[in-house]
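Request:
Um, any thoughts?
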Amino acid sequence: MSNRALIRISQTLLVCVSLCALETTVLAKRRMPAGGRLAVVVDERLSALRASPELSGLLLRRISRGVLVAITGAKTSREGVVFFRVKVTRRTGGWIQRDAVVAPGRDGDDARLLKLIKGSDEFDRIVRARIFLDNFRLSALRPEVLMIYSLAAEEAAVHLSRDSSRRLNTGEMNAGGAPIFSYFLNYNGLDRYNRQGITFVFNLGGNGFRYDGEAWREIVHRYPKSPQAEEARKRLASLSAGTQR
């Protein structure tokens, strides 16, 4: 077999391994291991998985934000820090600081996550708000989080409009032959927001990107009497004025 064929096979295997690793990561975030009580990692600064319930315990791995775990026990360390025994996969488990996770079935954890969301900046605020919306579907705090999430998306739209205009070359776009707005809506700066459920619309006339308003629609339809509903209606009315995908 030629060297070129061997290289091609090696490249193919590398791509397959990379795709499998990506799929495993995504599934780990979506699936909770069997047994125990559902919890989700929200603060990666504290998400060290340790072999024993103490801050000096051997580090096994660090769990990414958004990963689901199963709580099977709890213990307080000598320093007064509470640790949960958790299962991350069928074969992986350990101890994690309680403050790193929230449990949808535990009273007060929606309020605790909301406080963390409010104390977060920019993209971190969006990610944590998305975790709330995915896991606390019946919380009375949901309209407030929807508004925070949407306003953070609107703020991001301002930065994305500026950055995309600077990075996308008009001459190259004209030479490419595709509609100009399609280059903007394919701008790679949008990718991480799309993974958080955020879609932007684009106005070629000068306003640039805008958040598409899905969270405002949910507020209006599901929570029409909430304190956030009137603001959501105003923003939807503004959005409908001349914006195109």
